[in-house]
Amino acid sequence: MRICRVRGLNAALMLGVLGSLAVDASSQEVKHGSAIYTCTNAAGRTLTRDRPIAECMDREQRVLNSDGSLRTVLQPSLTSDERAVHEEAERRKAQERANKQEAIRRDRNLLARFPNEAAHNKARDAALNATRSGIQASEQRLADLQKERKPLLDEAEFYKGKNLPGKLKGQIESVDVSIEAQRALIVNQQAEVGRITALFDAELDRLKRLWGGADPGSLGPLPQSALAGQAAPQPKP
């Protein structure tokens, strides 16, 4: 008697599980079938399916609710070439956004560093004075080398028409090389003065517009000459 009762309970439980599965499956079918896909194929025929339509993967598909109202629109799948064009366009947009953010950051930094023209002029003078001090040191070094060269040339006068002793010849050549290097350094330092001036002129023009109310990032990039001057290290004597 007890065995029969247990078997009856097991059978009832099994029927309940099967019934639940049937209800779930039915609800899933209803959910799947609630979307209607429709499109016009290449031949001009209107197609309707309960799932995405393979013949219309290259064109727009409308997804309708069961009452015929529009749920969404599926855009056509891209070819490899179209995808490459799309990705390149997205890359350009991302780069433009990054450039915009960088321009905003630079302008805000400028405003933070230079709240007024007096602060900017002070920074200009400090930068120029450092480079001009370097030029003065280089010119002094050049004068010292020329003084060092004179007695060597005086000594070389005794050997006119003869080969110079190896030591004397080497000393003169060494001094001449140092003199040429020092002259080249002075030329670079003088060019640095021009680069610094160009940078601060461009910055001041930009700052005047920012102080006047222009939005950070709205003025475009600094001129390349100014950026080069900003990045260039100052020569050392």
Commentary on this structure:
With 237 residues, this protein is of the alpha+beta class. The chain folds into two domains: 29-77, no CATH class; 97-231. It is 68% helix and 8% strand. It has helices at 2-33, 80-113, 117-156, 166-211, 224-231; strands at 36-40, 46-49, 61-64, 70-74. A four-stranded antiparallel beta sheet has the order 2-1-3-4, with no helix packed on it.
Order of helical and strand elements: HEEEEHHHH
Radius of gyration: 41 Å
Strand order of the largest sheet: 2-1-3-4
Number of domains: 2
- Class based on secondary structure composition and strand pairing: alpha+beta
Strand residue content: 5-15%
Straight-line distance between termini: 111 Å
Q: State the major sheet.
A: 4 strands, antiparallel
Can you give the mean pLDDT? Answer: 83
The low-pLDDT segments are 1-6, 8-32, 227-237
What keyword list fits this structure?
237 residues, alpha+beta, 2 domains, four-stranded antiparallel beta sheet, 5 helices, 4 strands, 68% helix, elongated, disordered N terminus, disordered C terminus
What can be said about this structure in brief?
By secondary structure, the chain is α+β, with helices and mostly antiparallel strands. It has 5 helices and 4 strands, in the order αββββαααα.
Topology:
Elements lengths: L1 H32 L2 E5 L5 E4 L11 E4 L5 E5 L5 H34 L3 H40 L9 H46 L12 H8 L6
Antiparallel strand pairs: 1-2, 1-3, 3-4
Helix pairs in contact: 3-4, 4-5
